[in-house]
Amino acid sequence: MELATKYTVYRxxxxxDNPLYVGxxxxxxxxxxxxxxxxxxxxxxxxxxxxxxASAEDAADAEQKQVRELSPRYNVTPRYRDSRATRGRSxxxxxxxxxxxxxAAKVDMTALRDLREDQAYSVRELADMxxxxxxxxxxxxxxxxxxxxxxxxxxxxALEVKPRDIIKRTR
Length: 171
Prior knowledge:
The chain has 171 residues and is an alpha+beta fold. It has helices spanning 28-38, 56-70, 109-118, 123-130, 134-143, 149-159, and strands spanning 7-13, 19-25, 47-53, 80-81, 91-92, 105-106, 146-147.
């Protein structure tokens, strides 16, 4: 069992030291296992380099700086950073050159839950099929929060519906 007392910023490199991905986590082994299961680019990873930080804020700042400096191939950079590490101090930042900038979409929590239940999937089963965490799915079903477009596509594919079927329509 991993202890979750330190914050780790990790960099994944491919052949010839080309940067593939930069991330931040409290549980490095678990996060790498998730990448191995869900990322089609995982076989390209040749090296993992990590450093630990005492605070979430320091780790988030280091991650953001490394994404800007390295321009990793598979990072998708959001317009705003509002994670637990930076809550209360959301700041605009310039995406890494060539990084995709995508807006989150509001999930229709009732439609998502109904589709899952109609197909007799548990939260665990659907989350595993979609390659997302159970916590993420649970939060989307109970709060109808915003989700990254990639998460919406994964859920739609697992449920064999179109992404628009689980996005909340604004009127």
